[in-house]
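Collaborator request log, item 7. Partner lab (contact: R.S.) asked for a structural prediction of LysR family transcriptional regulator to inform their binding assays.
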Amino acid sequence: MDIKQLKYFCTIAEEKQITKAARRLHMAQPPLSQQLKSLETELGVMLFERNGRTMELTQAGTLLLKKAERILQEMDEIRHEVKESDKGLRGKLAIGTVKSCFSYLPERIRDFRASYPAVSFLLRDGDSYQIGELVKNRDVELGIVRLPLEMREFDHIQLPDEEYVGVFHRDLAPPDMNETLQMASFEGVPLLLLHRVSGAGQYEMILEECRKHNFEPTVLCECPDVTMLLSLVSKGVGATIVPRSTLLSFQSPELAVFDIEDAEVRAKSALIWLKQRHLSNQARRFTEEFKDM
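Returned to partner:
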């Protein structure tokens, strides 16, 4: 078994036909069929079941595909790392971020580009669970997430805690409030709350904080996108409780923002990357922008 055979196998698995795989690999069909037969003979298993013109992975083939993709990815990383060792900083850096943490990025990207103009950026967004999956699947090298998040597979840099604020439409804000309010002010108020696609996070933390102050919140809407929630608040649909930094990326004269005097909950976040994965030079340097915050 060698790297070339694994590449052939993965291409057949993706295309589900020898003919299409051979065309994609720019080779004739008979040699490709022979390579697959040789691989199956060496392993002593059938890797595909032939269903008409379509080839479906067997259980053994599914296991090999998972392992082979990891090996090919690691080979690409080794090749890239060796090439990088003799070059200056260049290339594309892929970063995933939850929108409520986006405020960490603009100034750091600007400053980084000033030092390393040959580096460009690819940005992806999602909730913390989705960003974690993007990092695990190597779609992005770095992710900025809200905690809590299962961290066993990640290395990380903890980012500064920040307070939550209450956000109302200016005409629907609690009466006689200046710049602060208390958690009790949210009792009976239709709340629009951040809620992850999967797993527990800020939504559960806010609910627990309300219960600590002896009331059950009235949740009108749950959504993983903070800009959508703030847009709804600006239209008078309800109020929300979000980390203060989220307001930096959504400005509206219709919003009234209040500190919450008696809230114990704090928004926590982290920069994450996959453990035991080679980080590109640009990713390693970019993480330094987040140290000593």
